[in-house]
Amino acid sequence: MTSMLDRESIIQETANFVRKEQEGESSGHDWWHTYRVWKLAEQISKSESADSFIVQLAALLHDIADHKFNNGDLKAGRSIITDHLSTLGINQDSIEFINDIVENISFKGANVEESALSIEGKIVQDADRLDAIGAVGIARAFAYGGFSNRVIYNPDIKPEIHSDFQSYRSNTAPSINHFYEKLLLLKDRMHTTSAKKIAEERHRFMEQYLNQFFNEWEGN
Ligand code: ADP
Ligand code: NI
Which of 112, 113, 139, 212 is close enough to 108 for a disulfide, judged by CB 3.0 to 4.6 Å? Predict the structure, then answer.
């Protein structure tokens, strides 16, 4: 039996570990993204019958592989997570469960089929996606755009609906296109009731922002 205190300190140790790894990252996967996803996921799990311990560990570790290995080497991510959690004495089944969540929550293109997820996975995916929309999501999209040398907007380049992960990942379109290729689609892909509610408001804010953006573009 693990006591509450043990679980608390395992979560705290994991937060310290991830913070050290992700501090100062500038592609949109910095520690504070992870922190927000962790807090949101913890909040959402209160209204669901889900294992909050698993939810919190998966939320904390969800971008550790992205950060370390830009090409998204899943095996490398799996071993970082496995090594870390084994050191803390987490059982193999829970480690497998957390790795499966981390590997299956990513957005892979508007028309790419999504993986089936456990309730814990759904909560982490909802939290990660909520942080991609709204005011913070807008900031992250342009931060990522700058990081990957994208222009803000070019009206000659139209948004695309990607049907495979490779073309979604390798596209070099302006940052504004990302709103149509991913961000505005997320609201309708939320799983939990509480995330759906938060998403509505963040979605409206992005629509307002885009309206203002296109008005200013034409000098209005
Ligand atoms: P995560 O899986 O953590 O949601 P991603 O790795 O897909 O995030 O992207 C990190 C951040 O960068 C997200 O906020 C995402 O919306 C943004 N982003 C990803 N691709 C693009 C893009 N092509 N243009 C602008 N922003 C992007
Ligand atoms: Ni993330």
Answer: 112
Could you tell me which CATH class the domain 4-217 is placed in?
mainly alpha
Largest interatomic CA distance in the chain: 65
Higher-confidence residue of 5 and 93: namely 93
Contact 122, 41 (CB under 8 A): no
Q: Are 186 and 133 in contact (CB under 8 A)?
A: yes
**Candidate from 176, 178, 179, 189 with most ligand 1 atoms within 8 A of CB, to mutate:** 178
**Vertex 80 angle, CA 61 and 172, to 5°:** 70
153-186 pLDDT, tens digit per residue, is 999 999 988 888 888 888 889 999 999 999 999 9
Query: Residue 6: which H helix or E strand, with range?
Result: helix 4-22
Q: Which two tokens stand for residue 74?
A: 């899943």
143, 28 contact by CB (below 8 A): yes
Angle at 92 between CA 122 and CA 41, to 5 degrees: 25
- Name which residue sits closest to atom 23 of ligand 1, judged by CA: 178
- C-alpha–C-alpha distance, residues 163 and 150, integer Å: 21
Contact 103, 75 (CB under 8 A): no
Q: Which two tokens stand for residue 206?
A: 């992005």
What tokens were used for 98? 């957390």
Q: Which of 35, 69, 140 to mutate to test the pocket of ligand 1 (most atoms within 8 A of CB)?
A: 140
